[in-house]
């Protein structure tokens, strides 16, 4: 027969109170219940733990030894309970997110600032990776919520929530404004000096597939690893850049870029939030998802 946690709780309070009666009062149980718990614990351990005196109860040598162990163990348990209470109240913990550099700049920064103001005790850890690398990061446990461009292969084992839609487009700088006064065909577009992301990016793969389905092979003259750098190249007049209208919005508003209208519409695609199906969300992650529900994703 093993001693129960409750018996150890009664033992600890009795040792601290030095009285069976006061222990009963502090534990909100009867004095006979205290006596029974101590007796059962002594029988289980086969030792005498207390000596009753007219002034109350004092620990035996064996009781003193047990007290040191139980006090430490209970302290750890109580500490764990307090930490979980703090996490529920979002006074501590860690929010682990994964996103590309483009999403971090055009989306996450605003939300992370708001989140930090609401929950200053929660640490924020952001891992910067491409959409294609996000699944491995989530499954390994390095991030809990991952933002990725959809469609994305191999995500059947994840729960995916659509956060927003983005509109792929081509933009040009002032040097090309006069050249594109009316929509052009996709066939004509590919003969221009194109600036695109590297082939490993989901944006590039999506556009490659879209053009390939129409019998057109994309051959960009410039390939870059950063969406923001790609936009800067377009502003500098170095070519026609493939981007998303949402990411280029500030440049377009400032008059630095214009969208090159095409005769064939490119279907919108989504930004998804990935999480493991087999694990519950932590309190910090739940709070972040709630924030997204309150303030739907806006790309700037």
Per the principal axes of the C-alpha atoms, what is the gross shape? Answer: rod-shaped
Radius of gyration: 32 Å
Give me the CATH fold name of the largest domain: D-Maltodextrin-Binding Protein, domain 2
Please list the strands of the largest sheet in the order they lie side by side.
Answer: 4-3-5-12-6
**Mean pLDDT metric:** 89
User: Kindly, what is the distance between the CA atoms of the first and last residues, rounded to a whole number of angstroms?
Assistant: 64 Å
What is the CATH architecture assignment of the largest domain? 3-Layer(aba) Sandwich
- Percent in helix: 40-55%
Major pleated sheet: 5 strands, mixed
Number of strand elements? 12
Give me the number of helical elements.
11
Write the element-wise H/E pattern from the N-terminal end onward. HHHEEHEHEHEEEHEHEHEHEEH
Overview of this protein structure:
- The chain is α/β, with parallel strands linked by helices.
- The chain has three domains: 5-88, Winged helix-like DNA-binding domain superfamily/Winged helix DNA-binding domain (Arc Repressor Mutant, subunit A); 94-165 and 270-294, Periplasmic binding protein-like II (D-Maltodextrin-Binding Protein, domain 2); 168-267, D-Maltodextrin-Binding Protein, domain 2, CATH 3.40.190.
- The protein has helices at 5-17, 20-27, 31-45, 61-88, 101-118, 131-140, 186-189, 202-212, 227-235, 245-253, 283-294, and strands at residues 50-53, 56-59, 94-99, 123-128, 145-149, 158-166, 168-173, 194-197, 222-224, 240-244, 257-259, 269-276.
- A five-stranded mixed sheet has the order 4-3-5-12-6, with helices on both faces.
- Helix 2 (20-27) packs across helix 3.
- The mean pLDDT is 89.
């Amino acid at each position: 027969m093993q001693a129960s946690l409750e018996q150890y709780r009664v033992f600890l309070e009795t040792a601290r109170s030095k009285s069976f009666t006061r222990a009963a009062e502090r534990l909100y149980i009867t004095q006979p219940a205290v006596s029974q718990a101590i007796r059962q614990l002594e029988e289980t351990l086969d030792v005498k733990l207390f000596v009753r005196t007219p002034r109350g109860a004092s620990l035996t040598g064996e009781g003193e030894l047990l007290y040191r162990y139980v006090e430490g163990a209970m302290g750890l348990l109580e500490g764990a309970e307090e930490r979980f209470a703090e996490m529920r109240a979002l006074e501590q913990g860690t929010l682990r997110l994964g996103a590309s550099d483009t999403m971090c700049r055009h989306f996450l920064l605003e939300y992370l600032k708001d989140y930090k103001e609401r929950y200053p005790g929660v640490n924020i850890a952001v891992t910067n990776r491409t959409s294609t690398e996000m699944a491995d990061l989530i499954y390994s446990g390095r991030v809990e919520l991952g933002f990725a461009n959809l469609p994305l292969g191999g995500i059947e084992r994840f729960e995916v929530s659509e956060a927003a839609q983005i509109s792929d487009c081509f933009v040009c700088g002032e040097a090309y404004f006069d050249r594109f006064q009316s929509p052009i065909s996709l066939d004509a577009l590919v003969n221009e000096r194109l600036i695109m992301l590297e082939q490993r990016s989901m944006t590039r793969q999506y556009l490659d597939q879209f053009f390939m389905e129409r019998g057109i092979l994309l051959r960009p003259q410039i390939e870059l690893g950063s969406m923001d750098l790609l936009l800067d190249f377009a502003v500098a007049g170095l070519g026609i850049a493939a981007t998303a209208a949402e990411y280029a919005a500030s440049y377009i508003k400032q008059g630095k870029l214009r969208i090159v209208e095409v005769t064939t519409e490119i279907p919108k695609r989504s930004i998804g939030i990935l999480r493991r199906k087999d694990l519950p969300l932590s309190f910090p992650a739940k709070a972040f998802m709630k924030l997204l529900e309150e303030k739907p994703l806006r790309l700037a």
